[in-house]
Amino acid sequence: MWSRRIKIRFVSVFIIIIMLLVSCQQRDYPADNEQLSHEEQIVIRFSHVVGENTPKGMAAIKFAELIKERSNGHVEIQVFPNGVLYKDGEELNALLRGDIQMIAPAISKITTLVPEWSVMDLPYAFKNADEVHTYVDSAVGQSLMNKLNVHNLLSVGVWDSGFKQLSNSIRPIEHIRDLEDLRMRIMPSDILAEQFSSIGAYPKRIDFNTVFNQLQKGNVDGQENTFTNITSKNLHSLQDYLTVSNHGYLGYLLLMNNEFWNSLPQNVQTLLIDTLEEVQEWEWQLAENLSSERLQEMEACDCITIHYLSAQEIQQWESAFDPVYDYYAGKYDSKYIKALPKNQSLH
Ligand code: LMR
């Protein structure tokens, strides 16, 4: 009798221990982060070059907050905005070296590593952000993504900034010929250089963080950027004319160092991917809303003369940029151009 009771106790204790072990294993993250040693925490340093009041800046903060909350602090995303850690032209190498784990550069800046990505820089390649998202998800989009893997990079999402507009301090730009002889700041991309040189302007590659200075010093006459980037750096205060041309998409690839990614536990990878998917949707909407808000602010500031290209002007501009497409087709696989939405409707 006595030995039966002991047996029952022993079995119950055994079952409780097993249940405790199983529940510990099932828990995704340690409940109390205070008990984690420094080494057990996963830190992801995320560097970018724009302000915290831009779609990218705000989405990076939201991503960091959600991950902290959902992992009980086990995973920490440290966001470094405004190029405080690494500037344009530095951050990609820092990621490749493994000094940081995540960046979100403009796609144009990836073209120095994978030039085929410059298909996204072709003028009037896309009418709206939805077209961009569909293209990136398509088979050719995937083949562009695969080219990143060769460089130990993994793309974990695409965020929008919006469509680029033109500003300058010399004259209103209504016709394409108005751009002739203007010195225009561009991001590092051969296609962007070609876009301006093909119509007689002078492209100048300049880091985002020094654009304000360069415009102020008169080293360039104008620049192209999205509404949120123009206002966040107060570029419109230095420029007299703005043309709402929507001539090119500016968006970001969220990149991680592949080797680092592979070192992460499966549950952390899942948490990051799920959260990024959610943040991406949120960011797309935010970029759209903020773009209209910033345009309204510029309309109201009475500080810059704004010209809106008409549908007819847009058509003329688009044909004027045909040589840029030929330039791309002469260098890279034409499948990337053929798959653009505007060429899809031709089939
Ligand atoms: C620029 O250099 O103009 C942009 O890429 C900045 C950014 O990251 O939006």
TrEMBL record:
NCBIfam families recorded: dctP, TRAP_S1
Keywords recorded for this protein, A-Z:
Signal, Transport
- Supply the source organism for this entry: Lysinibacillus sphaericus OT4b.31
Q: Which PANTHER family match?
A: C4-DICARBOXYLATE-BINDING PROTEIN DCTB (PTHR33376:SF7), PTHR33376
GO BP term (any one): transmembrane transport
Kindly state one GO CC term assigned in the UniProt record: outer membrane-bounded periplasmic space
Instruction: State the Pfam families in the record.
Output: DctP
Family the entry assigns: Belongs to the bacterial solute-binding protein 7 family.
Descriptive protein name: TRAP-type C4-dicarboxylate transport system, periplasmic component
